[in-house]
Amino acid sequence: MNRRIETKGIKGFEDYMRRLPDIALKASTMAINDTARKITAQAKKEILTELKFPKSYLNQRLNVIQFAKGDVQEAVIQGRQRATSLARFGAASLGKGNGVRVNVGRKGGKTISKAFLMKLNRGRGGSGGFNTGLALRLKKGESIKNKKVPYSKTGDPGLVLLYGPSVQQAFQQILPDLADDANEILGKEFNRQFERLSK
Predict the structure, then answer these.
(1) pLDDT in tens, 103-123
(2) Who's near 108: CB < 8 A, 6+ residues apart?
(3) Is 7 exposed, middle or buried (0-12, 13-18, 19+ CB in 10 A)?
(4) Average pLDDT of the chain to the nearest whole number
């Protein structure tokens, strides 16, 4: 699911387009792309103040996936939509049978009793090494919030992997707070680029 910021930061844009259309369009393209880059960087900082994603993980999975070009005057920022393994949130085993402690948010943490860390094949066909997952074995009839389908590759129907928020979910949560900043940045960048290009 994508969400949109409608930017209204370029005042009098129609007038610019009537007077100097080529320059206005080029300045708009550059301003939109500069704004997208800056908002992406700002979004990463804000997400990291709330959630304990590994910084490198977030940097690789929240990016501008489409830049403004030609008549397409919009940029698209998107995060990874697949849920994030709880193992990535600072998961630490408390010893055999004692569970695992995770820290999804910046405040405190949570111990999941009976959970354990396990190696998972990474990549299609089991190639590409291993990832670490956070797993829990349920008894017949038991269920748990945020559980994925049983990890069938093990042949154990009671084994489930535990997940936290996706990068895209985290991004969508803060997106409304970024709208005003995006408009302000866009207006300033357009004026700066238009002035530079029209000299």
Answers:
(1) 999 887 889 888 999 888 765
(2) none
(3) buried
(4) 84
State the Cα–Cα distance between residues 80 and 165, nearest whole angstrom.
10
Q: Please, are residues 166 and 79 in contact by the beta-carbon 8 Å criterion?
A: yes
| 134 touches 100 (CB < 8 A) | yes
DSSP single-letter state for residue 70: T
d(CA 98, CA 116): 9
**Residues for the chain: how many in total?**
199
Question: Could you give the 3-state DSSP secondary structure of residue 196?
Answer: helix
- The pLDDT tens digits for 161-180 are 888 999 999 999 999 999 89
Using CA atoms, how far residue 181 sits from 50, 76, 79, 88, in Å, is: 19, 16, 19, 30
- Cα-to-chain-centroid distance, residue 18: 38
Placement of tokens 């829990």 in the chain: 136
**Distance between CA 62 and CA 186 in Å, rounded?**
20
Using the structure block, give the residue that is written with the tokens 């084994």.
Answer: 159
